[in-house]
Please model this.
Amino acid sequence: MSGAPEGRTRQELRSSQWYGESVSSGLRSFSHRARTRQLGYLPEEHLGKPVIAVLNTWSDINPCHSHLRERAQAVKRGVWQAGGFPLEFPVSTLSETFQKPTPMLYRNLLAMETEELLRSYPVDGAVLLGGCDKTTPALLMGAASVDLPAVFVPAGPMLPGHWRGETLGSGTDMWKYWDDHRAGLIGDCELTELESGLARSPGHCMTMGTASTLTAAAEALGVTVPGASSIPAVDSGHDRMAAASGLRIVELVRQDRRLSRILTADAFADAVTTVLGLGGSTNAVIHLIAMAGRAGVELTLDDFDRIARTVPVLANVRPGGQRYLMEDFHFAGGLPGFLSRITDLLHLDRPTVCHDTLREQLAGARVHDADVIRTRDDPVAAEGGVAVLRGNLCPDGAVIKHIAAEPHLLRHTGPAVVFDDYRTMQRTIHDPALGITPDHVLVLRGSGPKGGPGMPEYGMLPIPDHLLKQGVRDMVRISDARMSGTSYGTCVLHVAPESYVGGPLALVRTGDLITLDVAARTLRLEVPDEELARRREQWTPPPARYERGYGALYGEQITQADTGCDFAFLARPGTVPDPYAG
Ligand code: FES
Ligand code: MG
Model:
């Protein structure tokens, strides 16, 4: 741990504005002290101590966070022992599995809730408990906007799945066995058994899906205690990590080490390097751009493509890797071990929540299994897992996780089969009358940030049944949607601008030729410009998806995928008055 500069005095704590310095500090502090007694606390238990908000995304509906009620207790234990005063705040849970149309619609809502809770209550520092996909970026976006000291406690991966002697990855194997069922290779009885084997403990998905990618990004940014992100959710080490986070946050408040000291341009560059070297989820592209925006750091799609060319994929974790799951990754050395392989690509002089430099944090980090965390000479893939495409079909960019695609499709020209929206696609894609062949390019539109709405994870369009039965398991698919981090296939995603706002995807017609060339980083619609201009004249914008409520606000404010899908009014710079200033 770093040497602490002189601690802040009681009067310098933000919470002292609420509690005052003495009994006669004023009516408001009299009231706040009386109400804290009402909570059952003695004045000597809390007055003058840093108030630590423990923001908890636990909910009965979120299986990935079902252990976070107990973990919050461990965090509080650490806070008390360090001389702080912990207060737990339940915040919106974003359950990837259950929330429709997609929890992405609500990421910015949790970010707003996080920001406003931390600002409006007597809080000196925060511990953020999250992990299921969108919760990590949402909590960090909100906390970055308030800029208090904060530590992130990742929920940790669930235990590996098991079924008939096989190790199962949540998500990834769900898609795989669902396809096997559609192809007639397994029956209902096997599916029922799989229901019990796929996800068998609390914790987030244990593949290198969106959750594991984003919690690793949080650790790489420096906002967790070292090694936190891969600790299995039900390991007793997870409790200890939670307590350590509670101990640490009190020290951070005393040092006044705010998030802005941690979330620098160098930190975001390292987080990008990390997610690419892990072969992580494409969702990280959107979330990291949005998180950087809140920290005042400009991060672009081109940064991802540039960095991808410099970093090999070293994590042999499914779905990008062949074999292993997050528990294997953890015991192979976890993120510190992984980062120790790429120190030449990182900014080692920047601070983290626990150390003055990342260099100091990584001292002693080791890899214990070189098949799980590969060496630079023996990578899973020579380049980072995500490529950014440009071309007349995606003027503002698109992404593809090419390491999870069939190599022969990475350069492909084929005729488009266009679906205007997800429901139409679901209804018609298996109809043999469409005459879809393995060479066709499946195009789905109406699934972007505004059109989806919320960019649902529709991007891994199903292979038509008749092709699946012939053994076809991958085709080129293009959409303005996202894809689950546990998915795979030659899926071009995040096409920007989206079709709903009139992006060129809106102009594609069935039969048009489309060329994908990942090596050249291009995606082209082989239709002359004059013809596209003619089609554009005939195009009319679709009606608003929501007439009222949160969805209407979302539709008005959401930005496109290439800029992170934040709300425009949250992403823009500007000051917010302190609640006690008025
Ligand atoms: Fe929660 Fe996958 S469903 S992380
Ligand atoms: Mg997911």
